[in-house]
Design brief:
It is a single chain. The protein is mainly alpha-helical. It has 2 domains: 86 residues, Orthogonal Bundle (Rna Polymerase Sigma Factor, Chain: A); 72 residues, Orthogonal Bundle (Arc Repressor Mutant, subunit A). Helices cover 73% and strands 0% of the residues. The chain contains 8 helices and no strands. α2 runs parallel beside α4, α2 runs antiparallel to α6 and α3 packs across α4. The termini are far apart. About 11% of the residues have low confidence. Keywords: Sigma factor, Transcription, Transcription regulation. Belongs to the sigma-70 factor family. ECF subfamily. Pfam families: Sigma70_r2 (PF04542), Sigma70_r4_2 (PF08281). One of its GO terms (molecular function) is sigma factor activity.
């Protein structure tokens, strides 16, 4: 009975935070097949680690940490983890049509630039885009707040340069 309850709780957590996992997949894998594989691997790793979850941190914080570590480990194990490039789909309905095209192009440029960042930089950007506080980022990534602030400033400059060049 206890095992069934644990499984129900785990499934509930996964359903509630599934979008967060998909965001991590989108940052680290570029084809649908690679994203699906990464998502499955994340769920497996979360399930394996679930008995160790003590509730000291929020579930989403703990889940992010496991998901990001799984993605980074996958990239390191397989140098060709990204088998091919398939542009991510982006929102098509951005406000008014005249500025909508320009906004969509800017968004596409930004995501293309983000794809060129390293694993840690991608994780920082993803958390930043979700309005996570530096304290939360510190808990998830295990990087000190001061270091995160410096890295974020460098990432912003790097993204400016990358989008400027395109």
């Amino acid at each position: 009975m206890q095992q069934q309850e644990a499984e129900r709780q785990f499934e509930k957590h996964i359903r509630e935070h599934e979008l967060l996992l998909h965001k991590v997949c989108r940052m680290y894998a570029y084809t649908d097949a690679d994203r699906q594989d990464l998502f499955q691997e994340m769920v497996i790793q979360l399930w394996k680690a679930y008995p160790k979850f003590k509730g000291d941190a929020k579930w989403s914080t703990w889940m992010y940490r496991v998901a990001i570590n799984t993605a980074i480990t996958g990239l390191r194990k397989k140098k060709n983890f990204i088998t091919s490039y398939e542009p991510a789909s982006f929102p098509e309905n951005i406000s008014d049509e005249s500025s909508g095209m320009a906004a969509e192009e800017q968004l596409q440029q930004l995501y293309t630039a983000i794809e060129q960042l390293n694993e840690i930089e991608k994780a920082i950007v993803m958390l930043y885009m979700e309005d996570r506080s530096y304290n939360e980022m510190e808990d998830i990534l295990g990087i000190g707040e001061a270091t995160l602030r410096v890295k974020m400033n460098r990432i912003k400059e790097k993204l400016r340069q990358l989008t400027k060049n395109n």
